Amino acid sequence: MQSYDVWEISDHVYWVGARDWNRRVFDALIPLPQGTTYNAYVVRGKKKTALVDTVNPGFEEELAARINQVMDQEALDYVIMNHAEPDHAGAIPQVMKLNGGATLVTTEKGAKMAEVYYGVQQDRVLVVRDGDTLDLGGKTLRFIEAPWQHWPETMFTYLVENKVLFPCDFLGFHTAYGLYDDQVEEFVPFAQRYFGEILMPFRKMGQKALEKIEGLHIELIAPSHGPIHRNPEWILDLYRQWTAGETLEKVVVVYVTMWQSTEAMIKAMVESLLAEGLEVSLHNLVYADLGDVARDLVDSRGIVLGTPTVLGGMHPLAIYAAHVVKALRPPLKYGVVLSSYGWGGGAVKQAAEILEPTKIEVVGAVEINGPPTDEAYEEIAELGRQLAGKIKA
Ligand code: FEO
Q1: pLDDT tens per residue across span 121-131
Q2: SS3 assignment for 85-102
Q3: Which of 55, 145, 239, 321 could make an SS bond with 38 (beta carbons 3.0 to 4.6 A apart)?
Q4: What is the number of the ligand 1 atom nearest to the C-alpha of 172?
């Protein structure tokens, strides 16, 4: 019989989740270069026990095997559902079936979702509100409503005596490596791409959530993806910057090219921006990892979008990127569009239409027929200087 590791991360608090080493995409959209984890935790009080979050569908048996190394799984008293998305709540039907006496603890919106998604009857649900507590016997769970991280029903759970915060998706990131934050080499880029992909559209709600936990004494942050933060200030400091929309003198460049004319324009723009001392991050959309683009959107102040005209409009990859930028609501302030066409334009007009509802000020655009001429190169360099001037101001 296979045995599984169980980690006591704090006094009578056990990691019982699952590592998904092979998962390579999330939401049918986001690449996961290092897989991910679905962290779940058992908290054992003197009188009662609670399971904080569960695991993705397909990992139910692994979860059960780990819980059973700590206690009899069928004796769980409470299942805390901080978030209803299936990667954390997918094992709830099995856990609730095995534990006929267990109570599901969640927010009011979570209770409705638990019924819709997991068939949990309302008479087995304890709805909690901001500040409510649950006494497990020497272990007190305090619930913190933190909606829209990144679904409406989300909450955090704080274990008072151990000073452990369970914030589910918030403050987590995707990697299957490492149990603790200081064991992960690429901590910041992975945390940043996760923030960009999942939480950036909800920055204001993220700020509110941070304000709520600001007064708590936190020794350990135990999220539901990635490593546990035993240096909580590292990730909290980053989230303070990111939720505030703090940007750098940095430009993210996303482009697609068919016959290298648009690419020649992009290269000229990049040279101009670098000459002005800006940081530039470039992504050819044919090869780009969407997570890397999301990462750079978190702290870039400007964006350059390059696309040829195809069938009277933008190249489909550029349309996709522009819609992603719009949906993720990054703190970008300034933008530029560059385009080459064969016999008729249209891409710049379409880009302006897609980006119009955003807060991005389009500083200018260059749209040319065929490869760039000396005159076009000069126009692009000048536009780069204008964009840099705005960004540095
Ligand atoms: Fe990791 Fe929103 O689920």
Answers
A1: 999 999 999 99
A2: CHHHHCCHHHHHHHCCCC
A3: 55
A4: 1
